[in-house]
Amino acid sequence: MPTENLTGEAEHSRSFFYWVQSTYEDVREAFLMDEWFAHLVGAKQLDAPVLHVWRHQGAIVLGIREKELPAVRNAVERFEQKGIQVMSRTSGGAAVWLDDGVVNVSVIWPGPPGQLSLNADFENFAAMLDATLPPIGRAQFKRGEVKGSYCPGTYDLSLDGKKICGLAQRRPLRSRIWQAFVNVSDVGSNRAGMVAQFYATAGAEDLANSIASNTVSNLSVLLERKINAISWIELFKDVTENNSKIQPLEKQWLQIPNDDQWIAWREQWLDRYRV
What we know:
The chain has helices at 27-42, 72-81, 118-130, 191-201, 205-209, 219-223, 229-243, 260-273; strands at residues 3-4, 10-11, 15-23, 50-55, 58-62, 85-88, 96-99, 102-110, 142-143, 156-159, 162-170, 175-183, 244-248. By secondary structure, the protein is an alpha+beta fold. The chain has one domain (13-273): Bira Bifunctional Protein, Domain 2 (BirA Bifunctional Protein, domain 2). The strands form three sheets. Strands 9-10-11-12-8-4-3-13 form an eight-stranded mixed beta sheet, with helices on both faces. A three-stranded mixed beta sheet has the order 6-5-7, with helices on one face. The protein is globular, with a radius of gyration of 19 Å.
């Protein structure tokens, strides 16, 4: 915890984060927990931002507007028959693929009303991810859209022209949620191909044809390193601790209260994620 001086004010000689690490069977639960942490941070029930690091073994997470694709229900049914969960997130961007070789990182900062700092937030988050590269042979990610990748946008991070990571953000009341996926290793999934296949099955041939599989890669392949999701998470934790103070979030904050108000809130959010 941050120390307190004689006036009772917290002294932050380095930035401070609460650390949460988990694996989810229902991918919607991961996004729900981001909203819960955003509530806690925004309401000042937590006195520092939260770093939420998580994984899921197989899912497609759609952008909020992609619920309206012409045959989206057909695509959802086809993919779920294969054991691939499909949901729609409330942050920006388009469809992304998750599997055991992808690490998802969310950072939830306080955000006083009227104060927007998208570029600063992006650069701060990107710099945290950059810090994992020198130990494995690179300096930093390139910023900017990787055309032909899935979920292309200004907040792409790439190496050698290949997209490795994509960031998205959402601004709840009094907080900011930034979310990133990091393609760490190859587990046999053609990630770009799977997203393109979903679009084609959903009747969006234009989106399917816009994706080129050679625009997306992962750290293990590009850097020719034996690195997997678990080892990258440990690396990310280590380099974050070099620059910040981190502390596991207390168990009392890891569960949403089990009362009528919060049960209703939970169901409302889970419903928003359905396609």
